[in-house]
Amino acid sequence: MYAIDYQKPKSLNEAAQALAKSGGKALAGGQSLVAAMKLRLAQPGTVVDLGAIPELKGIRKEGNALVIGAMTRHAEVAASSVVKGAIPALGALAEGIGDRQVRNMGTLGGSIANNDPAADWPAAVLACNATVITNKRQIPADQFFKGMYETALAADEIITAVSFPLPKQAAYAKFPNPASRFALVGVFVAKAADASVRAAVTGAAPSVFRAATVEAALAKSFTPDAAKSAKVDAKGLNADLHGTAAYRAHLIPVIAARAVAAA
After folding, report:
1. Which of 120, 156, 212, 240 could be bridged to 20 by S-S, CB 3.0 to 4.6 A?
2. What pTM does this model have?
3. How many domains does one find in the chain?
4. Between the CA of residue 190 and those of 23, 99, 195, 210, what are the distances in Å?
5. Of 137, 165, 193, which closes a domain?
6. DSSP letters of 71-116?
7. How far is CA 50 from CA 101, 186, 199, 240, 251, in A?
8. pLDDT digit string (tens) for 70-96?
9. What does DSSP assign to residue 167?
């Protein structure tokens, strides 16, 4: 580690001003940023801790949407009766993140702002056609995720909440790395009230993406067999010591079928 200027503002406006003035990094749960700083992969001169800002926390129903505050921790989502009654798939997803220590510190907002290629939350946000709410604007999910560790957020922009439209059916399944529980391939499927289907894939590419062939198959028949019949091109998918691009392409329909069965 190295010397940093640490700030812990009490309000959203104060936090935004601190980020704009310092050009530093916002700290949510710290499960990614602190580890990157220890490895010197990230060297912000200023760290702005969002943990003391009450309006960034909480879970509530608003009409036909479930709104989750950016600083709500994974464990809180997993345990929430509001989540279980509205979109239980989100609670199940949160329960499968990392280990107990990570779930008790990591946050929804921190996860999607970091946009790790193998993180679980981006798949839920994209598949549910959620809206990312910041201190400046509202960003549709299709416009939020830009690439590996890249989002539409400006340097001084802070996620305040995510609004998830209530789906008719939804579920998440993943093939996890046994050590980290990050997804080698994770697929979140959601069938909306208007019968449209979205399927978002994490872990398989540099950034979360929608699987068009899986969506087309499920639009015709929302069944595990239909999901499994979809063909996914391996071009552009990740290849590493855990699996080839072809292996991940094969896994996507298989994991999608498990998600549909769960839904």
Report:
1. 156
2. 0.94
3. 3
4. 37, 26, 9, 11
5. 165
6. T-BHHHHHH-HHHHHH-HHHHHHHHTSS-HHHHHH-BHHHHHHHT-
7. 19, 29, 31, 35, 37
8. 999 999 999 999 999 999 999 999 999
9. P
